[in-house]
Design brief:
single chain; 145 residues; Nuclear Transport Factor 2, Chain: A; four-stranded antiparallel β-sheet
Length: 145
C-alpha cells in the first residue's frame, strides 16, 4: 500500500510537467503560444499597432500622420470604470491638467487596457507621455533609468 501511494505521489506531478506550452514565431514576426490542449493564441496581438505608432513618432515630439485616428477602447471596460472616474475622458483631463493644455490637444496614441490595469500613451503639447491606471488610480509612468 505504501509503495502504491509513493508511486502515485510521484506520477501525478510528472504528468502535469509533461504538458508544456511552446512559444513560436510566425513568418510575419508575431509570437504565438501553442498550448498543451491543442489550442493557440497570439501573445502580442497589439504590438503591431504600437510599433506603427512608434514609427510615426520617431522624432522628438508627436509627428502624426494627417489621417491619424485614435484607437478604439473596450466599451465594457469603460462602462465599469465610469463609476470610479477612471474612463479615458478622466485620464485625458488629468493629462491636460498636468501639461497645461486643453482636452482636445491630448491625443491617445496607443493603449493596452484590461479591467484591473492599463497603460496609455498620449501626445500632449507635442510631447509623448505615458500614464498608467491601476484600478481607478491614474498616475504618470516614470522611467527609472
Amino acid at each position: 500500500m505504501k509503495t502504491f501511494f509513493l508511486l502515485l505521489v510521484c506520477l501525478i506531478p510528472s504528468m502535469s510537467f509533461a504538458q508544456n506550452n511552446y512559444i513560436v514565431k510566425t513568418e510575419d514576426g508575431r509570437r504565438v503560444l501553442l498550448k498543451a490542449d491543442f489550442t493557440w493564441e497570439y501573445i502580442d496581438a497589439e504590438s503591431s499597432s504600437i510599433t506603427s505608432i512608434e514609427k510615426l513618432n520617431d522624432d522628438a515630439g508627436c509627428n502624426l500622420d494627417v489621417n491619424f485616428v485614435e484607437p478604439k477602447l473596450n466599451q465594457k471596460i469603460q462602462a465599469q470604470l465610469k463609476r470610479g472616474r477612471a474612463t479615458i475622458d478622466d485620464v485625458k483631463k488629468k493629462v491636460a491638467k498636468d501639461y497645461n493644455c486643453t482636452i482636445e490637444d491630448v491625443l491617445l496614441l496607443s493603449v493596452s487596457e484590461q479591467k484591473a490595469k492599463a497603460v496609455y500613451h498620449f501626445c500632449a503639447n507635442g510631447e509623448k507621455v505615458t500614464y498608467k491606471r491601476i484600478g481607478n488610480t491614474i498616475v504618470k509612468k516614470e522611467k527609472l533609468f
